[in-house]
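For reproducibility, we list the full input for the C2E complex.
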Amino acid sequence: GELEVFYQPKVNVHLNQVVGMEALVRWSSEAGIILPARFIPLAEESDLIEKIGKFVLGSACAQSTQWRQEGLPDLEMAVNLSARQLQNANLPSQVAAVLEETGMPAHLLCLEITEGMLMENHERSVEILKQLKALGCKIAVDDFGTGYSSLSYLQRFPIDAPKIDQSFVGDLSTNRESSTIVSAVVRLAQTLGLKVVAEGVEQVAQEQLLRAMACDEIQGYLYSKPLPADEYATWLSNRLSVSTILRAESV
Ligand code: C2E
Ligand code: CA
Ligand code: CA
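The corresponding predicted structure, in tokenized form, follows.
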């Protein structure tokens, strides 16, 4: 009962509008909040990760439905999958059951996987990804550019969006190699008809460069850190009313 899901907004750069969020798990222990980097790798060594994964997916979908019922707009909810989950042939039926139980429309759920997960046992993973796509879910590739994988999988696998790793975004405005890589990934994604997301955006200069490169969506501390559900809802309502006022003023 100590696990909690936090939410971090994702903003469409062209529309300057919140279009979704990522669910990120936290462990609120007596000693304070423990970040997933400390306990997810341990959980991955056993089937505990399956339980955590189900908890996060169920909580995020239920939360999304509650927010829509409260009048917030349709926003995409991204949930991280672990390698073990993607190896589990029951994953598609588990996801289908959660969508049904929580009243979550499949097209609003985006599952994030990493390049490494695609490379391990990839025939089985591709089969599972295809079934998830058949349900109507979206698939994003997290930490894009950090693995040793072939670019051709963007075309071969049923993927909707690469998510450019924070390490490239972090020194985007100071390092030429990083900005070359980011702009190449953005163009590659556009050519393949995929959406492209950048994560770890902290500075206005990074946002401006990404906008100039025509990156679609941005996530990072520049907008907000991951927040508990109630704080996220407040943040979102404030932001939505500000954009309504701005739109009204511009008419
Ligand atoms: P990730 O999926 O790459 O998530 C992005 C991480 O970057 C998050 O760390 C987020 O808080 C952090 N972040 C976001 N914006 C910024 C920024 O502007 N600057 C910096 N420096 N960091 C930023 P977090 O929440 O600690 O999660 C770490 C990793 O733990 C995640 O990386 C993901 O791999 C894993 N994780 C988190 N929640 C889950 C989960 O529910 N299931 C699984 N399997 N893994 C999870
Ligand atoms: Ca992620
Ligand atoms: Ca990432």
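The chain has a mean pLDDT of 93. The pocket of C2E (ligand 1) is lined by residues 8, 24-25, 35-37, 40, 53, 56, 80, 82, 142-143, 166, 199-202, 219-221, 226 (CB under 6 Å). Both points were considered when choosing residues for closer inspection.
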